[in-house]
Amino acid sequence: MSLLVLSLFSTLLLPSVQANDNWPALLAQNPSFFDFTISPDGKHLAAKIFRDGRRTLVFFDSATMQTVGSASMGGMKEVGEYHWVNNERVVFQLVESKAWEKQPLYYGELFGVNIDGSRSQLLFGYQAGDEKAGSRLKVRESRRAWAEFIDTELDEDDQILIMSTPADKVGAKTAEILKINVYTGQTIGQGKVPVSYANVLVDSDGKPRVVTGTNKKDETEVYIRSLAAKEWTELPQQLFGSTFAPIAVTKDNKSLYVFDNKGQDKTGVFKLDLASGNYEAVYTDPLVDVTMVSRTADLRSVYGLRVDDGFPAYALLTSAFEEAKVFKKLLAAFPSEQVTITSSTKDGKKWLAAVSSDINPGTYYLYDHEKVSLTKLADRNPHLTGKTMAMMEPIKFPSFDGKEIHGYLTLTEQQSATKPMVVLVHGGPHGVRDHWGFDSEVQLLAKSGYNVLQVNYRGSDGYGAEYKAAGYRQWGDAIQKDIIAGTEWAIAQGHGKAGNVCIMGGSFGGYSVVQAATIKPDLYRCGVAVAGIYDLALMSKLGDIPRLGYGKAYLQKVIGDDPAQLAAFSPVNRIEQLKAHLLIAHGRHDERAPMEHATALTEALDKAGKPYEWLEFTDETHGFYSESNQQLYFTKVQQYLAQHLTK
User: Fold this and answer.
1) Contact by Cβ (8 Å): 406, 395
2) Which CATH code for domain 392-644?
3) Band of residue 139 on the pLDDT scale cut at 50, 70, 90
4) Helices 478-492 and 508-519: crossing angle, nearest 10°?
5) Distance CA 484, CA 399 (A)
6) Cβ atoms within 10 Å of 393's Cβ, excluding its own
7) Which residues contact 100 (CB under 8 A, 6 or more apart)?
8) Are 490 and 453 in contact (CB under 8 A)?
9) Predicted local confidence at residue 128, as pLDDT
10) CA atoms of 625 and 583, how far apart (whole Å)
């Protein structure tokens, strides 16, 4: 049976937007609706919106789409991660920004509210015990700790399971498992976890069964607790691979679905017998790691997964679950788009799906399984509806040593003989990769008249352990040569011209802007370096990474401690070779790449007499979090490229 697609026309959900080709403003604008979910009984929907620049939670009647309540915190506080705990109530993390720092940060607080706005209360956090006159923040017990959700399935005593990590500067203290009442905030201790930076997984009875974490050697530790035992037993490291990550305990409580690469290069999905430790292979792609899995509504099994070898592709592992049948229908309805089920009702009759693509930032649909119908709820960015976007295509090319490198190419519709091109370098470099999908920065560049190249250089995530490890201690050499090889490949294919190329990126991408431009000075005319690391020797001394419990071990693995190599791989020491003009943008409160890096770079440029432009954001951290700052940055980039590249 084919799907019947309907639409809900609502003034609230589909605002009228006049035509506007101010791309920096359009692409920097906050989404109108995001993080849509459905209540367990299906009678209500929840979604986040921006109100006065801050994230607010709004509740709708699912039949009429009329607003029935909201959770707007006021002041500098906003709604973070949230979960339905029953048909009438949600619990969410409370995040907060400062007047001098736009990035909202999580300080460990949990807040509960009913869909009509009643019984709103701060349940957990450092402000506990303070009953403030005229405030909705009423708490019971003070804890200087960070709360993380473990299991939001409500028990008979109105309790959910959370993890409480004592507050410190590095987050390395071991956490305690707590039951917390979602109405009163009262807690009951359930014991401590055995490792730092922990992730706890429960079984089908809601009991903690699996804990993973990271030790000081930057190694994964895995602990299992049997049904009868109270103590945690460590799983020997030889029994699992380097990418072990738990997914779900099976309904019979005997096995555990995991991501892992035990005995192989690519990360796949396995089933681990909790009693014997035996592994059963479920699915591994021969070319790329499994990106994500789709779990059943009870979170106890896996029915599908996604891989990203260029375009996203989906595999259904079984047809035994209703979820698999629903997902198959949704994939058929949206064959060229990404499909994610965000939530479903407890009876499995209604499902909420998010659909997106390289030219669609996102649309939310409500699927009725009984009626076999789809109802469009809202566009994530209705101000972009009807705008023609540039299409992103997967590419691959041989690097300097013959290694196959993957990436994406987005061609502007404004093709010209001068072929201006921007190489947009992703951050990381490890644990990150570019994916096919909507990217505001890519669209800004393409709509401004530039072809855009993205390179998943060695060291990027998603292509296996060997590919990732090939980037270790190669930040300033082989990784940069991959980016350069990609640039030269695109030029050879007719998508750019040497000397009319700009390289651009943030974080590690900002580092690569300067490093690549000093290795191949005549290839790039200009560079936009954002929030970059420019002196590798400073990384072990400054910033948030060395403060982490495993930070020193991580840095030793990925950049090493050889002074000569660190100096050679640091752009501040290579400025004499630089020919490209630079735009350097940095946030004053950046903890990942502290301002000292940008200062060292500008001082080296001044000393060498090299031209550059400087753009400092006094109220930002590692990136841009306010709409106004994002628009300012996009506008500056558009102006800068127009000045330095020939169209």
Assistant:
1) yes
2) 3.40.50.1820
3) very low
4) 70
5) 9
6) 14
7) 589, 618, 619
8) yes
9) 59
10) 19
Per the prediction, the chain carries an average pLDDT of 91
The dihedral of CA 475, 476, 479, 484: what is its sign? positive
Mapping DSSP to helix (H, G, I), strand (E, B) and coil, where does residue 599 land? helix
Q: Which residue has the tokens 């799906």?
A: 353
Q: For the residues of 240-251, what is the DSSP string, one character each?
A: S-TT-EEEEE-T
pLDDT in tens, 447-462: 999 999 999 999 999 9
Q: Each residue of 382-424: pLDDT tens digit?
A: 999 999 999 999 999 999 999 999 999 999 999 999 999 999 9
Structure tokens at 484: 């350069």
Q: How many Cα atoms occupy the beta-carbon half-sphere of 637 within 13 Å? A: 34
Amino acid at 212: T
| 14-33 burial: b if 16+ Cβ within 10 Å, else e | beebeeeeebbebbbbebbb
Angle at 625 between CA 622 and CA 627, to 5 degrees: 145
**Of 319, 328, 277, 278, nearest to 301 (Cα)?**
319
Asked if 374 and 333 touch (Cβ cutoff 8 Å), the reply is yes
The pLDDT value given to residue 170? 67
Phi, psi of 331 (to 5 degrees): -65, -35
Q: Which tens digit of pLDDT belongs to each residue from 315-335? A: 998 888 888 888 999 999 999
Say what the alpha-carbon torsion angle 176, 177, 180, 186 is, to the nearest 10 degrees. Answer: -40
| Cα(349)–Cα(7) distance, integer angstroms | 19
In angstroms, the Cα distances linking 380 to 356, 436, 584 are 9, 18, 31
Long-range contacts of 157-164 (CB under 8 A, 24+ apart): 157/181, 158/182, 158/183, 159/188, 160/83, 160/85, 160/91, 161/190, 161/200, 161/202, 161/206, 161/208, 162/110, 162/124, 163/193, 163/198, 163/200, 164/124
Q: Helical H runs in 475-576?
A: 478-492, 508-519, 551-558, 563-568
539: nearest Cα among 504, 563, 512: 563
Sorted by where each begins, the domain ranges of the chain are 226-317, 392-644
3-state secondary structure (DSSP) of residue 305: strand
Amino acid identity of 285?
Answer: D
How many beta carbons lie within 10 A of that of residue 163, not counting itself? 22
Confirm if 283 and 268 have CB atoms less than 8 A apart: yes
For the chain, report the end-to-end CA distance as a whole number of angstroms.
51
Helix or strand run (H / E) with residue 584? strand 581-587
Q: Hey, what long-range contacts does 255-258 have (CB within 8 A, 24 or more apart)?
A: 255/280, 256/201, 256/209, 256/210, 257/282, 257/293, 257/301, 257/302
220, two tokens: 């994964």
Q: What is the mean pLDDT of residues 488-502?
A: 96
Residue 317 pairs with which residues in a beta bridge?
A: none
Helical (H) or strand (E) element with 23 = helix 23-28
The answer to whether 119 touches 90, Cβ cutoff 8 Å, is no
